[in-house]
Amino acid sequence: MIRNILITGAGGYIGGSVATKFATQKDGPIKNTKIYAAVRSKDQTKSASIPGLAVLQLDCGDYEAVKDVVLNNHIDMVIHTASSMVASYSQNLLEALGERRKQSGQETGVLTAFTDMGGWRYGQCKDSDAEIFTKEKGIGDVHPTDILIVEQSKALGVKSFILPAPYVYGRGTGDWRKLSVSIPQYIRTSMRLKQVYKFPEDAAPAATHISDLVSLYKLLATKILLGQTPPANENGYYFPFAHRIPWYKTMDLLAKAMHSRGLVNQPHVEIWPSYEKAADEYGFPRQFIRAMGASSGDIVAEKPFELGWKPQWDEKKYLENIDQEVQDFLELDSGKASIFDALTT
């Protein structure tokens, strides 16, 4: 029976929100588990305020440290939201869980989030596609982390579940970071330039409110705890995509909301002269800026809904909440968050 759950990246936006939800759960099997939250800094361990949450400092790049945490705390499930683009972090967690499985004789598992479906060349991508893993392997080195997760999980007897995070928005509930990455960075840059800009091309990427993403993690964990383990490993892809967000409409609403507060000079949006200029102003990598700002992708989520996932946010509610996104930014922004922070939390 799974009794102890480790959540990595708990000092970040997604991991912190998941940790808070799990530690404060009042019903269901999660309330009977011990929740461990892994953060990067000692200061974060001292400032934790969520009752029932065991916060510990952990460098996921240090295998011996990871193994000690997993074995000494009898961890049977890991929710990995930290530095998902760093394959060695996932590898260390999987190997430690493999050791834990030998020690306990019971199943262990990882729920992991990763970003960017870049390089996909097979048209529409459904999480229910039985060949999705084989197709990913055919891309080459574009998705090394999730390929490693699937192959190593099978080799170690660990069950893995992959949740590729879309654009996530809304006010988080973690102790440390409550803001997402992209929209706050657009607001921050617009304030500095006194003007809201949009990319030369419109896009409508998949998106999910933070509360809905957390609810999917809860749903998967609950089913696993109840012994109703959903398909895992090469069949363990679950796309947490609730709706799409139209970027041009988003930027138009941002401009109006910011202008009404005196944060920009006009309520109208200008177009960036180039993607390179946009990348430099936002502080995003030039090689990824077009994919980040003008890519929609024909990605279809089916399996979360088959599990019973019921997102509460849709496109209409998202657009109606843009003014609140600006207000949340003004209340919560530390001025330190960046795309690089998000990838290394």
TrEMBL record:
InterPro entries, A to Z: Epimerase_deHydtase, NAD(P)-bd_dom_sf, NAD(P)-dependent_oxidoreduct
GO molecular function, one term: aldehyde dehydrogenase (NAD+) activity
Record SUPFAM superfamilies: NAD(P)-binding Rossmann-fold domains
GO (cellular component) term, any one: cytoplasm
Recorded coiled-coil stretches: none
Domain NAD-dependent epimerase/dehydratase: 5-87
PANTHER family in the record: NAD(P)-BINDING DOMAIN-CONTAINING PROTEIN-RELATED, PROTEIN YEEZ
Identification of the protein by name: NAD-dependent epimerase/dehydratase domain-containing protein
